[in-house]
Amino acid sequence: MKFSFRKKAFNWKYVAILGFLIGAMVVIMSSKAIKYTSTDEFCMSCHVHPHAEDAWRLSSHYDNKSGIVVHCVQCHLPPPGTVDYLKAKAVTGARDVYAMIFKDTDKINWEAKRQLSSAVKHTYQESCMNCHQELFPRGLSADGEKAHLHFEQNAERLDLNCLNCHLDAGHYNPYFSHEQMSHIPETEGLSGEPFTEATLVTGFDNFTEQIPQTTVSFNMVAIPGGTFLMGSPENEPLRNDDEGPVREVTISPFFMGEIEVTWNEYWSFYRATMAEGRISPNIVIAHNASGPDAISGPTPPFGIPDQGWGSGNRPAITMTPYAAEIYCQWLSQRTGKKYRLPTEAEWEYAVRAGSQTPYFFEGDPKRFEGTGLRGWLFGADTTGINTYAVYRENSMGRTMEPTFVQPNPFGLKNMSGNVYEYTSDWYAPDAYAQTPYEVTNPAGPESGTERVIRGGSFESNAGDLRSAARNHTDSEAWFRTDPQQPRSLWWYSDMRGIGFRVVYEPDNELIVQQNQ
After folding, report:
1. What is the pTM of this model?
2. 3-class DSSP state for residue 471?
3. CA-CA distances (angstroms) from residue 244 to 59, 226, 357, 405?
4. Pick the CATH number of 12-134 from 2.60.40.10, 1.10.3820.10, 3.90.1150.10, 1.10.3470.10
């Protein structure tokens, strides 16, 4: 008996139906997964950022008159419905999960991550514009119209971002504001009766200056004159071209502030003048003006310029070179001494304090900065530098009190790091090449557009803290979000890591004493 088997025709219809069902399930599940992982609750369950949720609920994106709530993904991802959205979601999710599992959250610098430089990496300008399509809505204030017009006309040229002015829109920060300060901050930690006289200096020794009519005093350090090699040799690690050629420079004796000008000192100046006139320092000098009306005071800054980090003995920041010079004129008038900004040569002589190595302390810039194979494997070696400098690795994204560091051999604190410091010199990349090999008390180029700044800041890498490292102001970038015309003479709108310290230029009798 024969059996015959009959092949059944393969029915592709069922395969298509099955494939469709599987595809539909994948789409539905993917959609549900995307929707679920885009909820605020899901974001908050993974994130370990302290107070992120509380700050969001206090912000204008949650607590507003309209009742509209802006959710996490509306700021921290591109607009939905695009490939970029899915890509960014995958990358962001993977990064956050990795951080939650493998990183020590106690060591994350949350304060630095709240700052503009970090925030712009985690938000999307197109998402801002996706919601705020009308830049001039009904009810916008006159200042708002001026600011938005400035943004509309200069966004691409100045690389402006919505967060430049609205950093606190998504996460409330009580210290961030783009409105002019309406009060005069008080000095901190000071008491007693105001001084009636400035300190009388009779010898070339350290002294404590007293600012008459205030309770503020500060220490001045006697810097002996001498000769040093200014600039860096070509083999110095992380050297820049504008640091040479090396020149032999002789410096006369002078006094320098032990620390950078503090908020207590600067607010005393602000309180004493309380004027909004705008007088050029050259006008004051040219007319040999004197008296309380000869020197104008700063106009109110936008927001709180201490960034909420505290005032007191922290360095005063965000003021322009003009403001620093006017402060020196006011201080000179109050004390009867000649206070001014240091020259670049005086500043480098003071930071070196007799050293000719990259820093006034021991250490290799490359090891401090973690460059090369060793740095890639083991990270930066901060042994030594943390004792003397406030910079990117130890600052927690803010300035620090002077007690945070040890002084250099001359007795000066925070010459490396904390905030950049103004000098009186105009910047030129070839300034040293234009200077004779042997020179006494050089004052830099006769003219220029930007000022030399020295020392690095709390945001700087270790290489920028070297004694010979030079930098300069960047007025265009530091005024990016200032919509005023003319721009403020007193305050930068986009630079926090800048301050200054003063120099007292002694008379000839004190110099003779030092040389004896």
Report:
1. 0.81
2. strand
3. 50, 20, 15, 29
4. 1.10.3820.10
